[in-house]
Amino acid sequence: MTDRTERDDDPDASDGLRRSWSRSSRPFPRNVMQPLQAFLQTESSSAILVLSAAAIALVWANAPFGDSYGRFWGTELSIRVGARALTDDLRGWVSDGLMTVFFLVVGLEIKRELVTGELRDLRRATLPVVAAIGGMLVPAAIYLSFTAGTDAAPGFGIAMPTDIVFVLAVLTLAGNAPAGLKAFLLTLAIVDDLGSIGIVAFAYATDVDPVPLLVAVVLFVAYASLWRIGVRAPLVYVALGVGSWVALDVGGIAPTLAGVVLAFLTPAVAFQRPRHVSDEARRVADLTLDEPVPPDADAAQWLDLARLSRETVSPLARTEALLLPWSSFVIVPLFALANAGVRLSGHALAEAVTGRLGLGILVSRIVGKPLGIAVAVLLALRWGLGRLPEGVRRAHVLAAGAVAGIPFTVSLFVAELALPARLVESATVAIILAAAATGLLGFLLVRRVGRRGEPPPDPVPPQVS
Is the pLDDT of residue 241 over 50? Predict the structure, then answer.
């Protein structure tokens, strides 16, 4: 048994609590693990990982061994239960399988904003909501003006979404954006995501089969009902989620939407009140010893208390906290790795900047997104539908529109979903070029507007001798 005095003298202990190895003062955790943890907590870390994954994909696809990129992601993988099997290539499992977790996290973020965030207050949410609508309609219209009558027209959803990861990264790197601009852009991005999800659900459904969709509805109802009657076993909800995903896939609807529906059905209210759990914690602490004999003699009471403590946090918040790191640092970079690998030949680049599809994407994102947001905001202000956040001026709105124009994850997802296979590569090249152009433009505008908006320094008082 560990000596109690030895434990209390542990240099890693603080107020009697022992730190985990990764947070200790030992050389490797201090010099490697803790800087890595600090990096992952920054708002730009996910964007850096996504950009790195996209760069690796581009290098891989354009290397002398570039054919291996297509062969690898085209490898078929089947999950078989008896005579039935789900079969897709690795890229499909990432795009339709793992991306369901991404859309689940997005749905949880949207619901949280509706329940406790900016979207809860209609007066504060009106302006970014109007801006988001303008930022979806104008780019979509510009895209359609370039692609009308072609096979690329159904991809108008590429022009609409705002990538939250890159919005946060640009604002963080710019360093001088007012706090109100960040809140404005995040709310706008949440509404954009909601609109993009609606487009995916209704515009890109093919060969719809009502029977599996009815099964999915039944599973969704069961999911909501079991929460309501107090069933808390995670395995039950995972099984219902997987079942609804399969049902939507068989029914002809993008199965990733199962994540969004499940997110909106997940409770945002905790099962336990903190005061009651605190009372129980004091009772358990009074009845137990620091050094029970035999060890863990009172483990059952503390395990029950741990369960109660978890239930003081809503299922929505717990699920989001559990899945957000996986979504940000694993799934989205893996999606970029699987989808950004296109050959950057002269023909592909020329097609991206001169073809109707490529021009539709570039112009809608570089010009249409800022224009739609700026016009919508100006009209809303003139009609008295809202007011700019504190510290945000009209000049910031154009910069915000440029930042919101950065396309990536959802735009790539829509391109793969909506366009014929022969057009996906050209769309991917155009999306990457648009992301680079709008990211740089947004960064420069935020920096320039921020410098102009900085207050002059306080005058130095004269020295009295």
Answer: yes
pLDDT-based confidence at residue 1 (cuts at 50, 70, 90):
very low
458: pLDDT strictly greater than 50: no
411-451 tens-digit pLDDT: 998 898 888 888 998 999 999 999 999 999 988 988 888 65
Average pLDDT score over residue span 97-116: 88
User: What is the average pLDDT value for the chain, to the nearest integer?
Assistant: 84
Q: Which domains does the chain have, with CATH numbers?
A: 43-204+254-270+313-453 (1.20.1530.10), 275-312 (no CATH)
pLDDT over 50 at 95, yes or no: yes
Residue range 120-134: average pLDDT?
84
Cα–Cα distances (Å) from 319 to 21, 51, 102, 143, 344, in that order, read 25, 26, 12, 37, 39
Q: Residue 296, class by beta-carbon neighbours within 10 Å (0-12 exposed, 13-18 middle, 19+ buried)?
A: exposed
Q: What's the whole-model pTM score?
A: 0.81
